[in-house]
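Q: Here's a chain of 390 amino acids. Please give me its 3D structure as tokens.
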Amino acid sequence: MLRALNREPCDYVPCCFMSFTALRRRVDEDLYALVDAEQALGLDSMLFIPVASRRQRPEHPDLRGLPIRFGPQVKCCTWNEKRPDGTQVLLREFQTPDGTLSTSVQITEDWPYGAQLPFVADYCVPRALTQLVRGPADLPALAHLLVPPTAEDIAVFRQEAERARSFARNRGVLLVGGWGVAADMLNWLCGMEQLLVLTHTNPDFVADLFEMVYLWNKQRMEVVLSAGVDLYIRRAWYEGCDFIRREFYREVALPRLKAEVELAHENGAKFGYICSSGLQPMLDYHLASGIDVLIGLDPVQGTSTDLQALKAKVEDRMCLWGGVSGAITVEMGTEEEVRSAVRQALCALGPNGFILSPVDNITLDTQKTWANLEIFRDEWRAHRVTVPAI
């Protein structure tokens, strides 16, 4: 894995799943047990820290990493209302010394959080009736919700990291930390459509918000990097050209991304960047940032994701991780579609500077999924040393 991240020749193209929810659930969300289970399947693996599961991070289920804590003077209140049209609405207020922030979401049949309304989560964005952050007047209050990790959280993490380092060395796997976050957090706070509009109508406000999130994330990043991780990962699913203007990215996001990459390198870690759609128009910025590995290349669901064109552009300047659609090809495809997708990924992206994985995840625990995973693994084993020609 390290040789692949360094774009050096490897004995074989590694196969490490960027996420494997179906298997993780089978081991009761134990990431240490997940490593053993993946290695038992013959896959390469990694140990991600902090290991807290989704149910252990109710305020931020979609942001892996250190706990999000609010300032000591913040008071929260959540309640449910039934509107005259029968719509069920969940509302939440954050009362701070510098003002009150409020948000509300419509409860749909697939709402997964019961009577709880997380601070930030993917599910909230399309169901939001009012966004938590709407303009410059909200920033002073937001500062009370984006506070540094507590001394207790840091102590707990360092104790966990000691065990994780020993385990990773013993199993011979990559020790990975994160997640960092930037524009994804802005989308959670402001809503996707609203944020895109604001980059046109009030770019100075969005830049100020970006800076606030950057400084908050940096404090969390420094703690994780102190563990001596091999790879630090930033989630950037909403930083492709589908979700952000290229001009805004170049002027606001890119300088801060460069600073994060430099911080990771100063601490001896590689920097990974998860973005699975809208890649090609942003690739010059990715290369300029100095990131070591671009994670999440999906040739089916990802827009602007031509595998051969991406590899030709990157050459040997960046490792690429992914190559096969998890949700479409592995979970739903025919045997030949799975085999063909594996061969095409190996041919287009390998052999050096490439890590094979379904993108983004394997979530369905079905007979078809596991049958296709066996086919996926079999095809990878057949071609991982001598990469096929299409």
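Q: Can you summarize the key feature?
A: The mean pLDDT is 97.
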